[in-house]
Amino acid sequence: GQQVMQIPQYQHVQEGEDFTTYCNSSTTLSNIQWYKQRPGGHPVFLIQLVKSGEVKKQKRLTFQFGEAKKNSSLHITATQTTDVGTYFCAGPSRDDKIIFGKGTRLHILP
Amino acid sequence: DAGVIQSPRHEVTEMGQEVTLRCKPISGHDYLFWYRQTMMRGLELLIYFNNNVPIDDSGMPEDRFSAKMPNASFSTLKIQPSEPRDSAVYFCASSFITGELFFGEGSRLTVL
To answer: Is pLDDT at B19 greater than 80 in this prediction?
Structure first.
C-alpha cells in the first residue's frame, strides 16, 4: 500500500539555527499537507500544496512540493522555542484516505 | 463552530472492559476519520467515513474494534474487550473533501 516516509525522525537544533524535514511518498500525490503537533496537543493543519514544484512561505516556514509530486520538504529559518513540536506530512491515497508520515520531532536547545 | 469535539479526554480502564470513544465532527464536513497515535507506530488511520458511510476500515486492528456513524454529527469508536496494547491517544478528525483535517483534542486511553 501507499507509504509516506519522513526523515529525520528527530532533530535537535540550537535556537536560531535552521531546520528541515523531508517527506517522500511511494506514489504520486494529488496534494500534500503539513501539520504541526505541539507536545501534548493535537495535529494542526499548516498548509496544503497542490502544484508540481510549488513553493509556499509562511513567515519563517518554507514548504516545497517536488516536481514529480512524490516528495516535499518543510524548512524553518532561524528556529524559535515556539517551533518545538512534531511536524507531519500527509497525503491522500486514491480512495481519499489521508496517510500520515511518522513525523519529525523538533527539539530546540536554548 | 466549536471544532471537533471528542470525549472522554482521558480514560483509564482495566483489561477486558468495554471502551467507547465519542466524536462530534464540525458541522457540514463530509469526512470523518479515526486515528490512533502511539510512539512506536505514529498516526495510524483506523477507519474513515464519507457522508456517514464507512469507506475503509482496513486499519482497524482486529474484531475487537468497531466504529459507527449513525448521523452526520456523531461517531463512536468502540473497543471490546480492551487490552493493554490498545493504550494510545485516539484522534477523531473531520474535513471537507480533499481539504484540511480538523482534529479533536484526542482521547487518551490507558488500559491496565
So the answer is: yes
* Mean pLDDT of the A29-34 span: 94
Q: How many residues can be counted in chain B?
A: 112
- Give B108's contacts (C-beta < 8 A, 6+ positions apart): B9, B10, B11, B88, B89
The mean pLDDT of B8-16, rounded to a whole number, is: 97
Q: What is the largest CA-CA distance in chain A?
A: 44
C-alpha B6/C-alpha B29 separation (Å) is 16
Q: What is the residue type of B55? A: I
Closest CA to A1 of A27, A22, A24, A23: A27
CA-nearest residue to A6 within chain B is: B42
Q: How far apart are CA A109 and CA A19, in angstroms?
A: 12
A90 touches chain B (CB under 8 A): yes
- Sort out which chain B residues have CB atoms less than 8 A from A44's CB and list them: 103
Cβ-Cβ contacts under 8 Å between A and B: the total is 50
Contact yes or no for A100 and B43 at CB 8 A: yes
Contact residues on chain A for B97, CB-CB shorter than 8 A: 96
CA separation for the pair B53, A100 (Å, rounded): 22
- In chain B, % helix, strand, coil (3-state, to 5) comes to 5, 55, 40
